[in-house]
Amino acid sequence: MLSIKNLKVSINDKQILKGLNLEVKAGEVHAIMGPNGSGKSTLANVIVGRDGYKIDSGEIIYEGKDLTGIEPEIRAREGIFLAFQYPVEIPGVNNVYLLKAAMNAKRKHRGEAELDAFEFLDLVKEKMKVVNMNEDLLNRAVNEGFSGGEKKRNEIFQMALLEPKLAILDETDSGLDIDALKIVASGVNGLRREDRAIIIVTHYQRLLDYIIPDYVHVLSDGKIIKSGGKELALELEEKGYDWVREEADAA
Amino acid sequence: MTSQSENIEVTTVEETTVENAQVETLVNAEYEHGFVTDIESDTIAPGLNEDVIRMISAKKDEPEWLLQWRLDAYRHWLTMDTPEWAHVHHEEIDYQAISYYSAPKSKGDGPKSLDEVDPKLLETYEKLGIPLQEQMMLAGVAVDAVFDSVSVATTFKDKLADAGVIFGSFSEAVKEHPELVRKYLGTVVPTGDNFFAALNSAVFTDGSFCFIPKGVRCPMELSTYFRINAANTGQFERTLIIAEEGSHVSYLEGCTAPMRDENQLHAAVVELIALDDAQIKYSTVQNWYPGDENGVGGIYNFVTKRGDCRGVNSKISWTQVETGSAITWKYPSCILRGDNSVGEFYSVAVTNNYQQADTGTKMIHIGKNTRSTIISKGISARFGQNTYRGMVRIAKTAENARNYTQCDSLLMGDKCGAHTFPYIEVKNSTAIVEHEATTSKIGEDQLFYCKQRGISEEDAVNMIVNGFCKEVFKELPMEFAVEAQKLLGITLEGAVG
User: Fold this and answer.
1) What was the ipTM of the complex prediction?
2) What span, in angstroms and rounded, lies between the C-alpha atoms of B132 and B475?
3) Scanning every residue of chain B, which has its alpha carbon at the shortest distance from the alpha carbon of A94?
4) Percent of chain B with pLDDT over 70
5) pLDDT tens for residues B345-378?
6) Distance from A228 to chain B by nearest Cα, in Å?
7) Distance (Å, whole) CA A92 – CA A241
8) Which of A73, A88, A162 sits opposite B445 (nearest CB)?
9) Residues in contact with A132: Cβ distance below 8 Å, sequence separation at least 6, in sequence order
């Protein structure tokens, strides 16, 4: 589904990703772990096509197509979803209204009929259960006055509704207390499917106690320096990142 | 800012913000209503002197007192200078180059019904999407359609007449209800109030008149569509609305104009009078030709709008959505004379390309327990300059007066500007005056968030801007709110790139 080859990316002439390789297949859950400043968020942003990142070399192939130069909204309509680390507030814009626009933009892109208000609301009600969304949050302005946990829940709710093929969760666990973390994790687990890939970007292992990944990759200084199964996350938790780095340096 | 002070305080704050935004502006939306209707006009040669004023008055068959009133205004105007305090720039206006009267020629003495109205005129309204006929009936809106300067069609008169409401053109009111016109005309905006009001008083050709008698709730929304059509014709509208004791009225004004290269002057005067327990809600959507993307052409909109809460417990509420005109200079204000009276001002002003807007309000608190609310939303894109200028004055007599002011500015791009000039004068220590101001640029983060959800940039901008204006739009009557949202979208189309 996603194939990243020798990707080099810089921001303001400073190279952040320095030859990153990653293969993600449908149905898989990958965790990208690494210390602060290793390039985790850059990777997430570059996949969704955010401005300000320059691809120096390499390629990002999604479903057989190179994503370079494709607008972020097109990538989104093609099924790439980012659950933001810091979801923004958009004052005055109703949460449901934004989602209906998003949903219909996607359906239109696929040549499907747009949903009317009733069909859409039925769908919303169904998907709200995924993360126990409070109905009250639906009719408020996007993320405005939401607590940290509510914002993250809202992200997963949007993911449930928009049904992406590739979902990237950027530090979804940050700022969550244990109860909120469990709700969000169970929401994500409910969205694991054969035809959907999920990439979890995280600093800490704690989220991975609840969402068990198929693969764990360690990102350090712009490269993936070690990959393994779910046990790698536990090892990192126990020993920190330094030993992997030392191991990589020695190799 | 909260001030509770016994002394006279005049505070002038200027916040000039020209922010560097990452958002690049790029505007190419063609003015939707840019077409000219080909109708023979009855136009006076350009120029202004007492003879021209006599001619206007004679053409309109006016009583002597009104002619004298005009001439007094004219003589006063001659002694006045163009105001230069506004934060706008334009070439000096040659008042002798303007034609002061233009009326569509009609067969006989004017139309008795819609059938008699020039079909081309009706077609123009159709193009503008003004549902003058069946649609109007369904919507329950009475329209006094002003085409250039003379009213050509008025609907729902009978229904309004049953309720005792007088609603029609100003000229008609002068003929049929001279005592009312004479009693109230110029009592809120005196002839010598300001340069443009004096000019209007001298040369106004028509406008709307509305009288709601004691205890009557006007059975429908009243709306007038103004449209400037003949080239080089300044439009000088005069609107007078009187709400007697305990009456209610909601008045809607919407404007569009055809595309032109010459600058056109529009200097209207609107006077509102609310007696005891009366309420007037006045809503405007202004979409006059703003000039092209290089700042050529466009309407100069220099308007004096003022409401007088003359009675106790009266209320006047202004809501305006200003997206058009090359230059907007207008301050719909409230004089809160009656005890417990309430004044409100809700405004959205958009300046795109080279548009300039200097707009705001004055809330003059005179009566006890008077309250006022000001919500102003300014949006600037490309090279647009947007100024909020507001005055809150609490007189000595205004015990327990309250004001809340909120001014928010939204910038799109790095070459536009937002400016805020709040003036506050407090002469009564029991007053509470609050002022809040924010300036933000349309956030890259917000845009990206929407795009990541699959929403196009244009739709995203539209959504964010409409969200920003929500507090004002919710004050508009429903059908107007929808129109205003569309208009905002059209105005800012392609404003981000």
Assistant:
1) 0.95
2) 24
3) B467
4) 74
5) 999 998 888 888 899 999 999 999 999 999 999 9
6) 30
7) 43
8) A88
9) A153, A183
